[in-house]
Write the structure tokens for this entry.
Amino acid sequence: MPIRTPETSTPGHARLMGVGGYRPSRVVPNSEIVEAIDSSDEWIRTRSGITERRWATPEETVQMMSVAAGRKAIEAAGLDPQQIDCVIVATVSHMLQTPSLAALVADELGTDHPAAFDISAACAGFCHGISMASDFVRGGSAKHVLVIGVERLSDLTNLRDRGTAFIFADGAGAAVVGPSDVPGIGPVVWGSAGEQADLIKQDVDWLTWGTAAERVEQPYLTMDGNPVFRWAAFSMAKVGQEALDRAGVGVDELDCFVPHQANLRIVDALARSMKLPESVTIARDITTMGNTSAASIPLALERLIENGEAKTGDTALLIAFGAGLVYAAQVVIVP
Ligand code: UT7
């Protein structure tokens, strides 16, 4: 017996309809971090570009931040929460194995029982989510997908670790993906390099930690920053170029470059290797937000839109990369 698919009226294309973000209230300058890691404001600024970051207060949970960013994105899309029929949350800092953060967020947003699930692709999670959402909309599985990237990396950061304490931060960013008459999200270029999994990881799993005979410190994220830096700065330019090629967009046609905000030197190295013209607006949200992993790209995009540096209809290249190692890139039209 064949499956008899009923006629559907899928539009054929998908686009970003609205973007929203949530920046935690507590501003943490470099001066607050340097003593415990024997560092300096100057070292952090020159090596990473970061001058300050946000760390969430106890009330600013991953759920609270996701709902705030998601609500803003839904409003920007001109939709009602009831019109969202799928919620994807990308995160590595939702501390419950189950239920998913997406189900909790969907409920608190007042949606009408949409599909809801979390994905784990670290700093590349938001771009993975956008790719999935685009395919769902184009394939008819959903009409309006809310994609959220959220992290409270401060919960997983050892403030005495010189390699991570100054870089990781908290926040949430979101976008609504919906139907379009013309292409608004280009083909994704994505992949993994699991042989390099040890470069960024949680140092001990929760079960081993929880059942240890002696109480040891909580699990933390560790990062061997230098090889990750080299991998990102050299390999991701090719990935970005491929995403442009697959979307049929030349560098001279690009308006905005919104890479994962991992390190300002990586942002600038990628722009140089890709030979982006001066006219391209480059997101540099890391300077005041630090590295917020899955939240960094939607937060950076939101900032460009709010500042008027990215305008409706602009062409933007997104590139995300991180623990796994994993990466994903696509061209999008700014809503
Ligand atoms: O978001 C997921 C993906 N993550 C990334 O893409 C992050 C990629 N990595 C990075 O951004 C950089 O590797 C860091 C910013 C984390 C570190 O910068 P780096 O230029 O790679 O520094 P390094 O680890 O090679 O260390 C250089 C020097 C060393 O001293 P010597 O051996 O040259 O005397 C370190 O001991 O800097 C020293 N150092 C520090 N000094 C002050 C390392 N960490 C610190 C510190 N403060 N926090």
